[in-house]
Design a protein that fits this description.
186 residues; 16% helix; five-stranded mixed β-sheet; 2 helices; 12 strands
Amino acid sequence: MTTEIALWLGDRGSSSLRCISNMGNCNMHLKRASGVWLAALALVMTVVACAGGSGAGASPSPMASQPTSGSAAGSGGQVVNVTLTDALRIEPAQIAVRAGQVDFVVTNTGTAEHEFFVGDEAAQSQHEKEMSQGGMVMDEPDGISVAPGATKTLSMSLSSAGTLVGGCHVSGHYAAGMKTQITISG
């Protein structure tokens, strides 16, 4: 599906709005419309243009998803609630899950930014090295940054039995013990 919306602001207060989608074309010429009105109109046009699509290929980023209640937090798999604290602890200190889809619903109860990065000891060491060399805390497939007071979900497919570590690599946090052991049973 192709959707294009363009807004041109001309001189003397005139504006044009153009929308191209799989539902057809529409052109509007607006005289002396306010910026708020144009923004609202562009939003409505975007919603209308996108509503006609099948939705195929559209999926939210698991790193940015907001948790919901119960076992349907994001993937329909196991849900594990994790808390990051300013005492430089990840709770619970030990997590047990079955191999398969796991949603880690991570809440930062502190006033400092934290992250939750999942990997084996080698991945943790590599991530710690990157962060100590000035790496930025950001969302990635194996980890999420969590702002103070925020909750985010990290969805992962854990395919085999073994042991992983969840850790925070904000400067000094991992070395101070901000980690949890994740045991995966087959």
